[in-house]
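User: Just a sanity check before I run the rest of the batch. Below are the structure tokens for the first item. I only need the designed sequence back.
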């Protein structure tokens, strides 16, 4: 579920780190480190992401203590739709490729 805080957090990350615009996995990890894990470790603020085990990480994810990765991805899409300046390089490449494919399809259809 996309909420205002997720939207604002994703937008902030995209504004501060251009590498996140084209890499959803990197965006998710940065989101969890920046926004979710500080809340999870509120009782132990010295705990860092590097110090938790994979088991603990997966337990947090399964228990929904971390924002769902699909929510982060969908929110990134929404942010980039509303704010074109936050789109990455792959957006333009995908749009050009889609235009080329449509052109080829139209050409093939005209031959039939």
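Assistant: Here's the designed sequence for the first item:
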């Amino acid at each position: 579920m996309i909420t205002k805080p997720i939207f604002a957090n994703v937008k902030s990350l995209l504004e501060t780190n251009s590498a996140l615009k084209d890499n959803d996995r990197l965006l998710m990890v940065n989101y969890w480190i920046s926004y979710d894990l500080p809340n999870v470790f509120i009782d132990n603020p010295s705990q860092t992401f590097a110090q938790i085990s994979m088991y603990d990480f997966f337990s947090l994810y399964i228990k929904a203590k971390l924002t769902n990765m699909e929510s982060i991805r969908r929110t990134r899409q929404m942010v980039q739709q509303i704010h074109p300046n936050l789109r990455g390089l792959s957006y333009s490449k995908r749009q050009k490729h889609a235009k080329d494919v449509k052109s080829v399809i139209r050409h093939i259809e005209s031959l039939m």
